[in-house]
Design a protein that fits this description.
single chain, LACTB2_WH, WH-like_DNA-bd_sf, 15 strands, RibonucZ/Hydroxyglut_hydro, six-stranded mixed sheet, Glyoxylase, beta-lactamase superfamily II, Arc Repressor Mutant, subunit A
Length: 277
């Protein structure tokens, strides 16, 4: 199996329309397609014992998406959940709270001092029938949410269409890999990611995601065994990406891998040149 073939695709979704993706769960896909977002951000409306919650309202600039969320919150809306602070997930939150009066719940590690949430969530906490999992790596404040029936909302930690960028300083590769292993050990039956289609039987897929990260780490070490080098040269050698935008993302992943290896005393660097210890 090639690296690309492990990922999942889907037709471009209808915009500003809610579609059921699991029992008691609606998905609305924002119109913010791109090289890092696939067809757009998935916003989920979740029926819970406490009422309907919206997870990740999406980008602030998509007014049609915003109105579709308001329309589908129904007669018993209860709250707003945030997987992490990146604007394609969080951007519409302030406006949605102002419009609906709903409380906003974010990670205890949420870094935006300009926004005051209504509640902070801790790892292991329960809210509206969901278990909070603090899964740093892609972002320091990243949360996944687990339902008791094996449905796991994975945000950007596990995406079905591609692997996630891990960009320091807020991104941390060691944390990211540790949390991938945590999700493997959970063995949920279905993942609903922040971008891309539903992921059925996710454990083998997440195992491959982790294996790919370890393969990249091995390639980086192999490169450094041959020659001490810069991040840019390592990324060009290991990832071989010609698109400038994707090449920059590859460089950020290399930085994250190198910092992980540095924390494990396996590499060292001086004046931007990295070498094997």
């Amino acid at each position: 199996m090639t690296k690309r073939s492990m990922f999942h695709t889907e037709p471009e979704p209808c915009r500003a329309r809610a579609e059921q993706v699991a029992e008691g769960i609606l998905r609305i896909v924002a119109s913010n397609p791109g090289k890092m977002t696939y067809h757009g951000t998935n916003s989920y409306i979740i029926d819970t014992p406490d009422g309907r919650f919206i997870l990740d309202p999406g980008p602030a600039e998509d007014s049609a998406h915003f109105e579709a969320i308001v329309e589908n919150l129904g007669g018993n809306p209860a709250g707003i959940l945030v997987s992490h602070h990146h604007s394609d997930h969080f951007g519409a939150v302030p406006g949605l709270r102002e419009r609906t009066g709903l409380p906003v719940y974010v990670s205890r590690a949420f870094p935006d001092d300009a926004f005051q949430p209504d509640g902070f969530l801790e790892d292991g906490q329960r809210i509206a029938g969901l278990t909070v999992l603090h899964t740093p790596g892609h972002a320091s404040d990243h949360l996944c949410f687990a339902r008791l029936d094996g449905v796991l909302f994975t945000g950007d930690h596990v995406m079905s269409w591609n692997s996630s960028i891990v960009s320091p300083p807020d991104g941390n590769m060691r944390d990211y890999c540790d949390q991938l292993q945590r999700l493997i050990d959970r063995d949920d039956r279905i993942c609903l990611p922040g971008h891309g289609p539903v992921l059925q039987d996710p454990r083998p897929y997440i195992e491959r995601l982790l294996a790919n990260r370890m393969r990249r780490e091995t390639q980086i070490l192999k490169h450094l065994l041959n020659t001490s080098d810069t991040v840019q040269n390592i990324a060009a050698s290991v990832y071989k990406k010609s698109d400038p935008h994707i090449a920059m993302a590859a460089e950020r992943n290399v930085v994250a891998h190198l910092q992980k290896l540095l924390s494990e005393s396996r590499v060292a660097q001086e004046e931007g040149i990295w070498r094997v210890n």
